[in-house]
Write a structure and sequence with these properties.
There is one protein chain. This protein is α/β, with parallel strands linked by helices. The protein has two domains: 12-176 and 363-379, 3-Layer(aba) Sandwich (Rossmann fold), CATH 3.40.50.2000; 184-361, Glycogen Phosphorylase B (Rossmann fold), CATH 3.40.50.2000. The chain is built from 15 helices and 15 strands. The chain has a seven-stranded parallel sheet with strand order 5-3-1-6-7-8-9, sandwiched between helices. Strands 12-11-10-13-14-15 form a six-stranded parallel sheet, sandwiched between helices. It has a two-stranded parallel ribbon with strand order 2-4. The longest helix is centred in the first third of the chain and has 18 residues, at 74-91. The radius of gyration is 22 Å and the shape is globular. The termini are close together.
């Protein structure tokens, strides 16, 4: 642990993140980091361009708003980095935790692989001067950091290839889930009644894709195609649920062309999402790429069988014990595997086993690992 400075009895830790909000995964990570650092004896300051001070106070951290560059483009990200470095030069923190848009000699938490995502989703490289790619390339190429923390081995492998990073520079830090909100008992409370409110018949199966948004990245088009193939195998036996904040129009039209629009239920993001997980017979995430995919972990924690793309980071949690729940993006293979799950009692056995596995990745368990990681940075190990 660093020794206290003369100006303040506690060593200073800074978390640099451009925007802080309650709902985003990156923000939740920042709040967890602030709480962990407080427990380790730091005075914690969050530097951000946008955010609500009340949210940071809940973790005992101070919120300092940095002036935001008003125009879009790569310079906006570099401007943030300059403001962070300038603030840190004046206040000399013992630890700087960056969330990708600022350099740090300590640790940088990366939440996405923008280059790999472009290749996976669009089949081409990002244009030169891309706003996010430019700052990521700058930050990750400096090499002055002790550690880069990533959400999955998939991310670590990409960064090793792309930036020449070594294994000792990378730490895989899987996001956790809330074990109070996501449990089999809570998710399945009045399950039949809830399914009835969704319009799902007593003898129908419900297959779903639940996400925060970005339907293209999460491959909702592929999900609709899978639904069409599954409907051919099991006529009038399946309903399909899509939850997320995005324009669903093209996917609704796709379902209509396939003649299955009446089999779909569309919802924007919801707060009581655990009941939707519990209502499903199978949760699917056929994403083109998902650096982690917390929704998959939440579904597992609710005791719902999952099928995940090989390009979903959360698939790493189940690859040893449940390799047959991880599929390449082949719609026929997905439809066949879902039909197999529904045709027997496999999903009833899978649910409890997946829920048990998920408990090892609860917020509490991941929080312990986070504290240990910060402690190792403080110790210089």
């Amino acid at each position: 642990m660093p020794s206290p400075t003369l100006s303040h009895p506690l060593p200073l830790a800074v978390i640099a993140i451009r925007q802080i909000a309650k709902s985003t995964g990156a923000s939740r990570n920042a709040f967890e980091q602030a709480a962990a650092l407080k427990e380790l004896g730091y005075r914690v300051v969050i530097l951000a361009e946008r955010g609500k001070p009340a949210l940071t106070k809940q973790t005992g951290a101070e919120f300092i708003r940095l002036r935001r560059w008003p125009f879009k483009g790569p310079f906006r990200r570099f401007w943030f980095n300059r403001r962070v470095q300038s603030w840190c030069k004046r206040h000399r923190p013992a630890l700087l935790v960056s969330h990708g848009d600022a350099e740090s000699r300590d640790v940088i938490y990366m939440h996405n692989c923008v280059h790999l995502a472009s290749q996976r989703i669009h089949g081409k490289a990002l244009p030169k001067g891309h706003e996010v790619a430019a700052i990521h390339d700058h930050v990750l190429s400096q090499g002055r950091f002790q550690r880069i923390a990533v959400n999955s081995r998939m991310m670590a492998d990409d960064f090793k290839r792309r930036y020449g990073l070594a294994d000792h520079q990378l730490e895989v830090s899987y996001p956790g889930y809330d074990p109070v909100q996501f449990t089999p008992i809570k998710a399945r409370a009045e399950r039949d009644t809830f399914r009835e409110t969704l319009g799902v018949g007593q003898h129908e199966f419900l297959i779903g894709l639940i996400t925060s948004g970005n339907f293209k990245k999460r491959n909702v088009a592929g999900f609709v195609e899978i639904a069409g193939l599954l409907s051919q195998r099991l006529p009038n036996q399946c309903r399909f649920l899509v939850i997320g904040k995005d324009d669903a129009t093209p996917y609704r039209q796709q379902a209509e062309k396939l003649g299955i629009s009446d089999r779909f239920i569309w919802h924007s993001t919801v707060s009581d999402v655990e009941h939707f997980y519990g209502a499903l017979d199978v949760f699917t995430l056929p994403a083109h790429i998902e650096e982690f995919g917390r929704v998959a972990l939440e579904a597992m924690a609710c005791g719902t069988p999952v099928l995940l793309s090989t390009w979903v980071g959360a698939a790493e949690l189940i690859e040893k014990e449940f390799p047959d729940l991880i599929l390449e993006n082949n719609s026929n293979a997905w439809a066949l595997r879902i039909a197999e799950l529904l045709a027997n009692d496999e999903q009833e056995e899978l649910g409890p086993r997946l829920a048990e596995l998920a408990t090892h990745y609860s917020h509490q368990e991941q929080y312990k690992k986070l504290k240990a990681s910060f402690q190792s940075l403080a110790d210089g190990s």
